[in-house]
Amino acid sequence: MDYEICDCKEILNDLREGLYFVDKDRGITFWNKGAELITGFSAEEMVGRFCYDNLLNHVDSNGVQLCLHGCPLQATIQDGICRDAQVYLHHKDGHRVRVNIRVRPMEQDGKVFGAAEIFSDAGFEEVSDLSVTQLERLALFDQLTELPNRRYIDTFLEHQLSDFTELAIPFGVMMMDLDLFKRINDQYGHSAGDAVLKMVSKTLQSALRKNDFVGRWGGEEFIAILRGVNKAELKAIAEKMRVVTGKSELQQDGAALSVTISIGATMICTGDCASAIVQRADEALYQSKHEGRDRVTLL
């Protein structure tokens, strides 16, 4: 029996899941783009074939060839009962793909005339479910310090610029760099350097106000964004961050490791773009470095 799928073909092809229809004889009548992506077989190769031709060669976890023994599609066509299963299909390139399948009868006037199988890559689903949260953290947070990374910082900064333009909410930016950090890596090793970076990141977080933002810009550089401050407040908070960082100390193999921090700070100005305010804060940081380190410069 012919199905009326022409009008919805575009929608069905947009599905991420694989989808195919079979008639009562298990002849394949439709094969969507999702099925092509997951299996490697094109619609031209599949439509007109039969699922028992065994191109997909579904097997279960025991290695039973389901297309020949216990085909869920065939069973659903016979009894009209929906079925869900996890199977391993044969990809055109030769490897196995673990998929979750859902088989549903296709009925008209109470009679089953075929079946639809929807299938999705089980490995991809696990990564997605697993972890929308974990993936977000991998994409947006630095794994060592657990602070927001450069991508997150760029987005956050753009939001602050929008709030300044639309709502006149001022903010300040601080660029911070650990002084002579290379000496720690050279003398004590990179694991000690990593431990110091973690120590500093936690210290910076604790020195900021609840709604302030700090992220890892890269290497031993950090950036802080403070909403609703004026110049005096920005300078005072920067000084506090400099002092508490310098007073932090880490015991590593019997040695007390500490580090100072240089800071460059600036306030948002009318007409600033993200790169302009960051560059100005970076210039202030350079000035702090040039004038002896362990200090705050406000431009």
Number of helices: 11
- Kindly report the average pLDDT value: 86
What percentage of amino acids are in beta strands?
A: 25-35%
Query: How is the biggest beta sheet arranged?
Result: 5 strands, antiparallel
Radius of gyration: 30 Å
Low-confidence blocks of residues = 1-7, 126-132
Count of individual beta strands: 12
Q: Structural class of the helices, strands and pairings?
A: alpha+beta
Would you tell me which CATH topology of the largest domain applies? Alpha-Beta Plaits
Task: State the CATH architecture of the largest domain.
Answer: 2-Layer Sandwich
Distance, first to last CA: 76 Å
CATH class of the largest domain: Alpha Beta
Overall tally of domains: 2
User: What is the fourth-level CATH superfamily of the largest domain?
Assistant: Reverse transcriptase/Diguanylate cyclase domain
Helix content: 25-40%
Shape: elongated
Provide the succession of SSEs. HEEHHHEEEHHHEHHEEHEEEHE
